Model the fold of this input.
Amino acid sequence: MDTFLQVTAYGLLQGGLLALVAVGFSLVWGIMNIVNLSHGAFVILGAYIAWEIQGWLGLDPFLGMFISAAVLFCVGYIFQRFLINLIVNGPVFITLLLTFGINMILIQGMNLFFTADFRSIQTSYGSNSFEVGNIRIPLVRLLAFLLAIVITFALVAFVKHTRTGISIMATGMDRGAARLMGIRARHVYALTFGISAALAGMAGTMIATIETFDPSKAGKFTLMAFVVAVLGGLGNMYGALVGGLLMGLVQGWAGQYLSGTWVNAIAFLVLIIVLVFRPNGLVGKAFYAARVEI
Amino acid sequence: MSTLKALKSVNGFKRTLLEGLLVLVVVAGAIFFKSTLPGGELRAVSTIFMFIALSQAWNIIGGFTGYASFGQVVFFGMGGYFTAAVMLHLHFSFWLALPLSGLFGAVFAVIIGQPLLKLKGHYFAIATLGVAEGMREVVINLPDITGGGAGISVPIAGTFAKTQYLGDGGFYLLFLALALFALAVGTVVSRNKFGYGLRAIHQNEDAAAAVGINTVRSKVMAYSLSAFITGMVGASYVFQQVTIFPERLFDVEITVLMIMMVVIGGSGTVVGPLLGALGLQFISEYLREHFTNMHTFILGGIIILAVILIPQGLVNYIREGRRTKNYSLLANIRRYRL
Done:
């Protein structure tokens, strides 16, 4: 029983991390109908920036995270405004190819700039953990989990209660109508992508404090974001959180009770089952999966 | 009416004759070059042939039908592992394993195609990607059959090997044959009723169903046809590489390369993927040789530029330009811009 609880707790914490990686990805997909294959590269870039900040200024990653997010917001804004906006109305593989091209450039750029060595952010409390009952909870993972929840709720509050947030939602629902109401879709799209990149930067910082990272891990994070976003579904800001927690639990349990690396196969099995039987995800809205933009 | 028909068939006959001659000349040239090229170059050209076949295969499902199969590599990997397994465990000859792996891929495509081809757009892309990633994990976790993560080796010499290793020249011819086969399939599909049905599905699936096209059957057939070719290419690749690993054989990058070649060359045409495969593989080899460090960097830049400047692909761009007398790249940028 203790093992089960421990595995469940660990799965939930891991799920929080997955949700953190996926929340920005899901936002961009839901609002702009773009599957951003460079999301993982943004995550890793955020990790490198936080790592550099800690090296130069000795800033704690939980503070450096905000600088990392700010830098990535600018990078994301520029990419969307001047590059991705040019092909936003294109067919699926055009957007996929463009973001894959960005991904290649970012990864190779980081390889040249930071080398392909494994890195991680060391903190004095990095290996701390505490026990609840008989369950061991690593401190940094718990903080990352809480951050995922805070970010999700903050995002919901942002899109519901601020003018910018409402204009983002409006553009996502009906771009033609939103533009007629005087919303600058180009700017709003760039803003959305910037927010997504900033969230990826925060996720990257958390990953850097928890485990080692290097540019080659980017693909893994993109794929995880994919799976989680689909599981949760689009059009609902809680989608990534629900999908992430579910995925974390599945991975935790499968890792404990199945031999070898079947855990990864299970993850994709869940993905395909959800896609076939509930293509709009667990809490998503069908509207966002099948719409035509003007 | 009958004169028009006769004229058309004469024109069609002339066209076929010309194309046939062109293919003969190219094949004769390729076979002639085989004896003059050194081993390394032979392998490089074999890779080009391999990607010609792969991009033609992807074009059938992605280009004609418009379903972005982002996990096409799964058929490559499964065809390859099928060949490795039957040659190692059941001592099949390669020439028997080759068509069987294509068939294996095609049957698998029929099985997964039934549910997956109901999905549209990004969802189909992700579902196929999930299948590819999932199958890689399955292969890793069945070490008795597939050798698992440690890899598997095909017997290529000695008493256990039914088929001896073909050598650089042999593989050159094998991949040339596969490329020609894929081109032939692509040409036939492009010009017959089935192919027009696929194009109709691409443009408007509901309308296609309304005019009497069995969309489900057409889609599944297109998917399994492209899987058949991909599986055979995978089988040949495995025999060429001798020792194989799941990571390489289910590499997403192979799928991405196929898609890049088709999209940049011109999807939904036969010449487009051919040009895309030739051009991209040539540029890629050149960059790898001369700018080893910056190779991926420059390739990424080329992809971004190509996708923004000629999103419809080179062949379609030239065709449209000839029809409308307008070669403006700015008009191209405006096409999909916000």
User: Anything to note?
Assistant: Chain B touches chain A through 50 residues (CB under 8 Å). Chain B has 16 helices and two strands. The radius of gyration of chain B is 21 Å.
